[in-house]
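User: Reviewer 2 asked us to show a designed sequence for the structure in our supplementary figure. I'm pasting the structure tokens here. Could you produce the per-position amino acids so we can include them in the response letter?
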């Protein structure tokens, strides 16, 4: 669980952006003028994040993005985004040397579309479209190039800019090659990622089968070491694609009157989840909210859980 100490403290985060522009030996972070100029992309809409294996070559994933200009940047100046390079890797890897260029698109204003077809992804990776197997996860990295020639991507910005959901930064996004859901899928799973921090990466947890096209995560959240189950944390799964949703539910009591509520996935904010029975891969992003006695509490925001069947 998130350390409850966060309920009693507010931490200010200072965000800075540096770019790939040469500064004649001067550290750009040492000069406040360099911190006031720049731009980054924000998510306007996650239009489609599924590549349909049945028509993998022509299936298209896409998002819409808008630029955010940092203070001090003219809306018509050199800090404006001119074009965007879209890179891809199988799985994920924030090291730019591993990225493969899909294409470069011009920035055309608010809600610019960034898209990639199965054929384009396969070509960038040097494989055939049919090698994009069901259950495969592909991460796209967006690199913004400003009109004055600077570049901004996940490798040269403060990590807090992306990790804080309030900034809605669009440095990367994931697409999945979807496959039909066929149960049962219950059993032991390894924790790959748990933003709620009930478990560490590498821990083994139990996922239970529930009703038709459902799984039960009550043995995952809450971790019995921290809290007790209030209501089952049920995940509903679309059998055609493996797309998953989590209805709003108060799933755990973490002591001291703190009841944790999952406020659903696939919300208007573009949160999504998948349960791929073909590869034993579960990824869910939910909004979590803590409700405490007396009305005190906090919203943890977008919280991701990723599990891999053993």
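Assistant: Here is a per-position design you can include in the supplement:
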């Amino acid at each position: 669980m998130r350390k409850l100490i966060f309920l009693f403290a507010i931490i200010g985060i200072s965000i800075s952006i540096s770019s790939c522009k040469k500064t004649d030996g001067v550290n750009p972070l040492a000069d406040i003028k360099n911190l006031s100029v720049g731009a980054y992309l924000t998510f306007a809409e996650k239009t489609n994040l599924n590549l349909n294996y049945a028509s993998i070559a022509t299936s298209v994933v896409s998002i819409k993005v808008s630029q955010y200009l940092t203070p001090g940047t003219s809306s018509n100046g050199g800090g404006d985004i001119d074009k965007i390079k879209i890179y891809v890797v199988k799985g994920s890897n924030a090291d730019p040397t591993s990225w493969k260029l899909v294409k470069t698109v011009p920035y055309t204003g608010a809600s610019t579309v960034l898209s990639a077809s199965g054929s384009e992804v396969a070509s960038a990776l040097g494989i055939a479209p049919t090698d994009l197997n069901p259950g495969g996860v592909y991460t796209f990295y967006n690199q913004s190039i400003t009109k004055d020639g600077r570049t901004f991507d996940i490798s040269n910005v403060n990590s807090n800019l992306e990790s804080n959901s309030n900034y809605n930064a669009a440095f990367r996004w994931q697409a999945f090659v979807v496959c039909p859901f066929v149960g049962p899928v219950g059993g032991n799973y390894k924790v790959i990622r748990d933003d709620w921090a009930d478990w560490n990466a590498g821990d083994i947890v139990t996922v239970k089968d529930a009703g038709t096209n459902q799984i039960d995560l009550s043995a995952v959240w809450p971790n019995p070491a921290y809290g007790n189950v209030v209501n089952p944390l049920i995940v509903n799964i679309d059998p055609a694609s493996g797309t998953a949703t989590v209805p709003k539910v108060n799933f755990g009591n973490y002591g001291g009157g703190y009841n944790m509520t999952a406020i659903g996935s696939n919300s208007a904010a573009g949160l999504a989840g998948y349960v791929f029975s073909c590869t034993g891969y579960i990824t869910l992003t939910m909004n979590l909210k803590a409700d405490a006695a007396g009305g005190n509490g906090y919203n943890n925001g977008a919280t991701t859980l990723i599990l891999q069947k053993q």
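For the response letter, you might also mention the following. Confidence is low (pLDDT under 50) at residues 3-16, 20-36, 266-270. Residues 65 and 264 are 23 Å apart (CA to CA).
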